[in-house]
Amino acid sequence: MTHDQCTLPTRGGCPTSTKELVIMKAKIINFLETTGFSWSVPMVKLASGENPREQLQELFSLLGLPVIAVVVFLVMWSGMAVQVNTSLGQLPGPAQVWQQATTLYDEHVAEGEKEAAFYQRQEVRNAKKLAKNPDATVKIRSYTGKPTYFDQILTSLLTVFTGFLMATIIAIPIGVACGLSDRLYGAVSPLIQVFKPISPLAWLPIVTMVVSAVYVSDDPMFEKAFITSAITVMLCSLWPTLINTAVGVASIDHDLMNVGRVIRLHWTAQVFKVALPAALPMIFTGLRISLGIGWMVLIAAEMLAQNPGLGKFVWDEFQNGSSDSLGRIMVAVLTIGIIGFILDWMMVTLQKLFSHDPTASIR
Amino acid sequence: MNALSNVVSQLSSRSSAKTISPDEATTASPTKEEMSEEKQVKERVYLEVSNTSIEFPTKQGPFKALDDVNLKISRGEFITLIGHSGCGKSTVLNIIAGLLQATEGGVILEGREVDEPGPDRAVVFQNHSLFPWLTVYQNVELAVKQVFKGKKNKAEMVEWIEHNLELVHMSHALHKRPSEISGGMKQRVGIARALAMQPKVLLMDEPFGALDALTRAHLQDSLMEIQKETHNTVVMITHDVDEAVLLSDRIVMMTNGPAATIGEILEVELARPRNRVELADDSQYNHYRAEVLKFLYERQRKPDESAA
Ligand SMILES: Nc1ncnc2c1ncn2[C@@H]1O[C@H](COP(=O)(O)OP(=O)(O)O)[C@@H](O)[C@H]1O
Ligand SMILES: [Mg+2]
Description:
Distance between the termini of chain B: 52 Å
Shape of chain B: globular
Number of strands of chain B: 10
Order of helices and strands of chain A: HHHEEHHHHHHHHH
Radius of gyration of chain B: 21 Å
Oligomer: heterodimer
Shape of chain A: globular
Number of helices of chain B: 12
Strand order of the largest sheet of chain A: 1-2
Number of strands of chain A: 2
CATH architecture of the largest domain in chain A: Orthogonal Bundle
Helix content of chain B: 40-55%
Structural class of chain B: alpha/beta
Distance between the termini of chain A: 35 Å
CATH superfamily of the largest domain in chain B: P-loop containing nucleotide triphosphate hydrolases
Order of helices and strands of chain B: HHHEEEHEEEHHHEHEHEEHHH
Largest sheet of chain B: 6 strands, mixed
CATH superfamily of the largest domain in chain A: MetI-like
Largest sheet of chain A: 2 strands, antiparallel
Bound molecules: adenosine-5'-diphosphate, magnesium ion
Largest interface: A-B, 20 and 21 residues
CATH topology of the largest domain in chain A: MetI-like fold
Strand order of the largest sheet of chain B: 6-7-8-3-9-10
Number of domains of chain B: 2
């Protein structure tokens, strides 16, 4: 090993000491592994000159094999798509879907330009008006163009996070309480078991009616459809977090709680300094499942509640029925999948960060 | 002293006046000499487990785990509890700790009855029970902050935490998490946390039970070293005969459950400091060892073992 040469503390010596490099490499690898980029670890090792043959093999199994699987899938998809004829024309293959994706992106850019132009025109008009008569009141209207595909994605994300956040705020305290008290858990357990399997589609009509009845305001801050979708998401993504939190708190090592009793922690400290941190890994497992469910539920809710978002986009395209529709729907389907994947990746990273056992493998 | 007699009378009334011994009852007015002698005895008793029984409610009805356990411990004494697994050693310890409530009788520490857990009876648990999300330092800090709130200032607390971790030779890993250190080290930190509470009694439930023989020997030596400095009153559970003889002033041997109680108490009069290598050849040491083994394997042989 080369870093042995650097053990003597010479004054100016070893500016880029190999030891530092080794530590940095270990840090980079650790970071990549926690963030789920373990497939790029062999590249780092390769760059630092570690046994190339072994690393290339590793790289092949981590990166090469998945790429091959994707290619095989795309080939099969395009091969089969040409054999299916629908009332809207041939089922689109990967090429057509890609084309639709670029079209959607172009539309987004065009809409952005239109919007910029609108505001510019408005500004020019107002400036002229003010030049003529400095006391004139100028109106500033906001642009009311059609939401583009990317606007829809943003709306969907906003809705799912709102619902998820509400669910979290409700589920964790109840979960902790249930975990601490067997009696309380026994009491609410039947309710949880009954509400848990209810489909979002069943909740939606009720939620819609309740929101219409309760959420009345002349100048609503949020659209009703948005509230309805968010609440539906909340109702469905409540349960995994609640149950996991309860189980996590209930299964805390008894001796950990006893340590708290021996040092006479106040019960609030017992909850916040012992129970919650101890249950955190389980809570994050629950949160991860909740967010996954929330995202699935959201698309269905948006379709029915007509909340602007990916679900509505799919529904509108379906109703639209142009020759491009199927391609655009497929773009949406893939987008939903990729966003779901990214959300899950975020939660896994958090889960790893809060895990007490760094050696545990989280999938 | 008044408080003690109060508690004793309370206790005895609770356990149907069984504690009042006949000669005590007949002695109408003790002479002055007897008084002072009695006082001396009482002063020597620092911790007392008095007529303690416990029943656990189970689905098959109440299960009497301990029956009439009596134990008097002096200040600075090192006591080990030994007995077959499941006989009720942990239950005794948990009653002293206040984590379990005795059905009958109770525990008196420095003349006061104790019925809830507290830092004056610090516990070292078998599986270290460190908080995995805190570092070594923070684990001890949590206890110190809680116990010395308003009694020590910040600098004093830091010094006290570091001092206790130094005692168990863990200063090199202050900022490591429990998952990053070995089992023996975790147990050291557990001991440091308990010592840092400055307890009147240190309670240890098979603290070295999960460790390999070499690590266990290291920790036993560390514990004897610490004991030489701190002179703590210790009640320790073990299932290791050598450990018991090496460390104890007295070995308390428990009978098998259910309704377990104290079978015999063995005084270990070996000079300190004790050295395990020298003792291995010592006839007195081997005699004590044989005594404990005889108790465990002849008189208290496990029922299923005698059947086999
Ligand atoms: N909470 C409890 N409920 C019912 N039975 C218990 C409980 N705690 C301990 N016991 C019983 O009491 C006996 C003594 O247990 P314990 O003190 O843990 O034994 P030891 O520590 O000597 O191995 C065992 O038979 C055990 O099953
Ligand atoms: Mg035990």
